[in-house]
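Record type: monomer structure entry
Structure origin: computed from sequence
Chain ID: A
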Amino acid sequence: MGIIVWLIVGAIAGWLAGLIVKGAGFGLIGNIIVGIVGAVVAGWLLPRLGILIGGGFIAEVINAAIGAVIVLVILSLIRRA
């Protein structure tokens, strides 16, 4: 059941990040992967910056979306180079 939640959170976060960072989407599967990677990045980075959003499903999606935006910006910078 946990992996299904990760996929759902990743899909939502990747989709939101694709909307926020225009032109940097990777399709459904790519956005799920970016969302999951973003959740890992945000789970590591945000507490170190002192940013705590809270608990629950919505907070997980917000954290993952923030991380996915960071990942998409980095990937778009690498893609341009």
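Annotation 1: The chain has one domain: 2-80.
Annotation 2: The chain is about 80% helix and 0% strand.
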